[in-house]
Write a structure and sequence with these properties.
Length: 754
C-alpha cells in the first residue's frame, strides 16, 4: 500500500537499502490510548483502521506495510496500553508481540508514540519497554497542540537523559513520521549489531537487594531460556504478574517456589513497615525516575491557553452528580431521535424501491413457486435488511462523533459506579447502549463493542446479557402490540419495556458474576481525553466501516434466513384430498358472489365469506408446512404463556431474525406480508381474535424482549466469547428465562384484566 513515506528523498546512512538480510523488517507501534498511534499507523500504511477516542478501541494487533524508498516495512499497530504488566487484554497483546515465546519473532524495534502534552504519564510505558531491553524510539506526537498550549520540550536533552532517540511528530498530518520510522529502523539495527542493555532503575533500599538476589538466581539457572532480562522477570514477580508466574510454573516449578518465597518475605516486610505492597513501591520509584527525567526538559509558558484546563472546567459540569446524568440522557435521546426522524426518509425511499421492485417482478412472472421465491424470499428479505441501513448509518455517524470528541469516555465514567454493583464494568455501558439500551440499536455491533472490556469475565457477563436490550428489530413487535392492546398508554408500555430490558440485564449479570462467571472485578482505569472536534474524514471512515460490517455480517445471513423462512412456510404443500373441502367452499362462495347483482346489499357479506374461505385454506396450508407442524407440536408447551401455534411460528422465525416476527405473524394469520409500521390488517385481526388479550400481549412483548438472540447475533457472540458452549447457554438460558417471565406476566395479566 502507498504511504506518506513512499517518496522519501534521503534514507540517511543506510542509503537505499533498508531491508534486513532475513527479510522484511517489523516495527511495533505502541503507546497509551488516545496518543495518536493508530492515526500514525494509518498515515504510514494507508490503512483505514478505526481510530477511537476512548481507551480499548484497538484490542487486536493490526498490521500494515509502509514503503520506505520502495522497500516494505511491516508495521504492527498494537492496542493502547499504559504498562507492560499483563493485567488487561490490551497489555496481554502488547506483551505477546514485544516478548514472544520465540525470540526470532520479536520486532526489530519499537516506535513508542507519546502525547506531548502528557509526556510524564506516557513515559511510564516507555520506561518498561526500556527495562525489557528492547530498542525504542520515542515519538512526541501532537506537537502542534503542545505548541498551542505553550508547552516546550527540549527533545535533545530528553534524548540524552533517556538514552534513546526522541523525535517530534504530528500524526494527523504526517509531520515527522518519516524520520521517526527511519530512526526506529536505525535503532533496531544498531541494537542487533551491538546489543541493547536493559534500563536499570533503583527501586530503593527495600527492593534493590531482593531484586539483585532474585536476578542472580534467575540468570544462573537461565530461567525462561533468556526470553526476558533476569531483572525484568524479578520485577514482574514482585509486581505479582499473573502471566509471568504462570510461565514460571510451567518452565521451572521448583524455582518459582523459591521466587514466590522471596516475594512473600519482602511483601510482609513492606506491609509491616510502610503499609504498601511491592508493586506500589515499584510504581512510585518509576514515576520518581520519570519526574527526574522531565524536570527542566518540559516547560510551559505562564499565559498559554491550556486545553486540558478547559476540558476540566467542562467536565465539572458534564460529569457532575446532577447535570451529568441528565445531559447524558439528553444526548442519548437526541441521538436516537435524530436517527429515527432523519432516517425515516431514506428508509422510506429504500422500502418504496424494494416495493416497486417486488411489484414489477410480480407482474412480470406467472404465479408459482419461482415468483414466490424471488419476491417473498429474495426481494423482501433483502429489502428488510437494507431498509435498516440508513438508520444504522446515521446512528453510527453520531456514535463516531461522540467517540472521537471524547464524550463517550465520560458516559462510561459516570455509569461505572452503578455497573460495579452488578458485577459489570464502566466500559460495559457502550455495548448496552449500542445494543438498544435507548431502544433502536443492534446486538451485533453491541457484541463487537465488548472488545473494549479488559476482563474476560466482565466481557462475558456483558456479552451474555446485552441481548436483553430493546434492539431496533424488536420495536415493530412492541409498537404493534402496545398500539393494539394498550392504546391509552402505549408510550408508557414502551418505556416500561425499555426499563425491563435494563433491569433484566443488570440482575442476570449479577447472578452470573456470583455463580458461573465468578472473578475479581477489575479497576476502572480510564483516561478522560481532552475534548476535540473530530475531523469529518475520521467520522465518515468510522461510520462507513461499521455500516459495511453490518451489511457484510448481517445482510447475507438475513437474506438466507428470509429464504429459509419462506421455504419452511411453503413446503410441503397441502395434498389434494385435504385441500378439497376448502377449495369447494371457495368455489361455492365465488359462485354465489358471481350470481349476486353488482350493487346488491348482500354482496359485502358474500365477499367476506369468500375471504374467510380463502383464509381458512391458507391457514390449513400453513399448518401443514414444516413451520406449521413445529408450531402445532410446541403449542402445549407455550399455552401457559398464552401463545398459540401461529405465535409459536413467528417466535421461531424470530430466532433467525427478529425483523421476521411481525411479517411471519401476518403470514401465519393468512394476511400475507405486513409492513411493521403499518400492520393495520394484522392489528385488527389480533384485536378481534379471542385467543389474544392484554395478558397475552404483555407476555408476548416480554418474551420477545428476553428470549434467544437472533442468529447473526449468536454468531458474533460465538466470535467474541470463543466457544459454542456459551452460544448454547445463551439460547437455552435466555429462552427459559423469557418463558418464566412470560408465564408470570400472563398470569398476573389475567388477574388484573381478566
Amino acid at each position: 500500500m502507498g504511504c506518506s513515506v513512499c517518496n522519501e528523498q534521503h534514507a540517511g546512512a543506510e542509503g537505499t537499502r533498508i531491508a534486513d538480510s532475513e527479510g522484511v523488517i517489523s516495527i511495533a507501534l505502541v503507546g497509551n490510548p488516545n496518543c495518536g498511534k493508530t492515526t500514525a499507523f494509518n498515515m504510514l500504511t494507508g490503512a483505514r483502521q478505526h481510530v477511537g477516542n476512548y481507551p480499548g478501541v484497538t484490542v487486536d494487533r493490526k498490521e500494515g506495510t509502509a514503503l520506505l524508498n520502495g522497500t516494505p516495512v511491516r508495521l504492527i499497530d498494537l492496542p493502547g496500553a499504559y504498562s507492560l504488566t499483563a493485567f488487561s487484554q490490551e497489555e496481554v497483546v502488547v506483551r505477546q508481540v514485544l516478548a514472544p515465546a520465540d525470540k526470532a519473532e520479536r520486532p526489530l524495534a519499537v516506535c513508542d508514540v507519546a502525547e506531548a502534552c502528557a509526556l510524564e504519564r506516557s513515559l511510564y510505558l516507555t520506561v518498561q519497554i526500556m527495562e525489557l531491553g528492547l530498542p525504542v524510539v520515542l515519538v512526541c506526537n501532537m506537537m502542534d497542540e503542545a505548541r498551542k498550549a505553550g508547552v516546550q520540550i527540549n527533545l535533545k536533552e530528553l534524548s540524552a537523559r533517556l538514552g534513546i532517540p526522541v523525535v517530534e511528530a504530528v500524526a494527523r498530518t504526517g509531520e515527522g513520521l518519516q524520520g521517526a520510522l527511519r530512526q526506529t529502523i536505525q535503532a533496531g539495527r544498531t541494537a542487533r549489531k551491538a546489543g541493547s542493555a536493559p534500563l536499570i532503575i533503583s527501586y530503593g533500599p527495600d527492593l534493590d537487594p531482593v531484586l539483585g538476589i532474585m536476578s542472580a538466581f534467575i540468570e544462573e539457572r537461565s530461567i525462561l531460556g533468556g526470553r526476558y532480562p533476569a531483572r525484568w522477570i524479578a520485577l514482574k514477580v514482585l509486581e505479582h504478574d499473573a502471566r509471568i508466574l504462570e510461565e514460571l510454573r510451567t518452565d521451572s516449578p521448583e524455582a518459582v517456589a523459591w521466587l514466590e518465597e522471596q516475594y512473600e518475605k519482602v511483601a510482609a516486610h513492606l506491609k509491616e513497615t510502610h503499609e504498601v505492597a511491592p508493586d506500589a513501591i515499584i510504581a512510585d520509584y518509576r514515576y520518581g525516575f520519570i519526574r527526574g527525567v522531565v524536570r527542566g526538559v518540559v516547560k510551559k509558558e505562564a499565559n498559554s491557553q491550556d486545553r486540558l484546563a478547559m476540558t476540566d472546567r467542562i467536565d465539572k459540569v458534564l460529569t457532575s452528580t446532577l447535570i451529568g446524568p441528565l445531559f447524558m440522557l439528553a444526548v442519548m435521546y437526541l441521538m436516537f431521535y435524530v436517527t429515527f426522524e432523519v432516517g425515516a426518509y431514506p428508509q422510506g425511499w429504500v422500502e418504496n424501491a424494494f416495493g416497486w421492485l417486488g411489484d414489477t417482478v410480480t407482474e412480470s412472472l406467472p404465479d408459482g413457486l419461482l415468483r414466490s421465491l424471488i419476491v417473498s424470499g429474495l426481494i423482501d428479505g433483502l429489502g428488510g435488511v437494507l431498509s435498516f441501513v440508513p438508520l444504522i448509518a446515521i446512528m453510527f455517524l453520531m456514535i463516531a462523533f461522540l467517540e472521537d470528541s471524547g464524550y463517550m469516555a465520560r458516559i462510561a465514567y459516570m455509569l461505572d459506579r452503578v455497573f460495579r454493583v452488578f458485577g459489570l464494568h464502566g466500559a460495559s455501558v457502550m455495548p448496552y447502549i449500542i445494543s438498544g439500551g435507548i431502544a433502536g440499536g443492534c446486538a451485533i455491533p453491541g457484541a463487537m463493542a465488548t472488545r473494549t472490556l479488559h476482563s474476560p469475565k466482565e466481557k462475558l457477563a456483558t456479552l451474555l446479557t446485552l441481548p436483553y436490550m430493546a434492539c431496533g428489530a424488536k420495536l415493530p413487535v412492541f409498537l404493534l402490540l402496545a398500539g393494539v392492546f394498550f392504546p391509552e398508554n402505549a408510550a408508557g408500555v414502551m418505556f416500561g419495556l425499555l426499563l425491563a430490558g435494563w433491569a433484566s440485564a443488570l440482575i442476570i449479570a449479577r447472578i452470573l458474576r456470583g455463580t458461573i462467571i465468578r472473578g475479581q472485578a477489575t479497576p476502572f482505569i480510564m483516561e478522560l481525553p481532552p475534548y476535540r472536534l473530530p475531523s469529518l474524514r475520521s467520522v465518515l471512515i468510522h461510520c462507513w466501516e461499521r455500516t459495511f460490517m453490518y451489511l457484510r455480517k448481517a445482510g447475507t445471513v438475513l437474506v438466507a434466513v428470509s429464504i429459509l423462512i419462506w421455504a419452511s412456510m411453503t413446503f410441503p404443500g397441502l395434498d389434494e384430498e385435504r385441500a378439497a373441502p376448502f377449495e369447494q367452499a371457495i368455489a361455492a362462495a365465488e359462485a354465489q358472489l358471481e350470481q349476486a347483482p353488482e350493487n346488491a346489499p348482500e354482496r359485502e357479506k358474500l365477499e367476506a365469506a369468500l375471504a374467510e374461505a380463502q383464509n381458512a385454506l391458507a391457514a390449513e396450508e400453513l399448518r401443514n408446512t414444516v413451520a406449521g407442524r413445529i408450531g402445532t407440536a410446541i403449542e402445549p408447551l407455550t399455552r401457559p404463556a398464552g401463545f398459540d401455534w401461529r405465535t409459536d411460528i413467528a417466535l421461531l422465525g424470530g430466532i433467525a431474525a427478529k425483523e421476521a416476527i411481525v411479517s411471519t405473524l401476518g403470514t401465519a394469520y393468512s394476511l400475507g406480508e405486513e409492513d411493521p409500521e403499518e400492520a393495520t390488517g394484522l392489528a385488527e385481526r389480533l384485536a378481534s381474535d379471542p385467543g389474544w388479550s392484554k395478558a397475552v400481549a404483555l407476555a408476548m412483548m416480554l418474551f420477545v424482549l428476553l428470549y434467544s438472540p437472533c442468529f447473526v447475533a449468536l454468531v458474533v457472540i460465538r466470535q467474541e466469547a470463543g466457544s459454542w458452549g456459551w452460544v448454547a447457554f445463551t439460547i437455552v438460558f435466555n429462552t427459559v428465562f423469557a418463558y418464566g417471565v412470560a408465564v408470570a406476566a400472563h398470569r398476573i395479566g389475567l388477574m388484573i384484566w381478566g
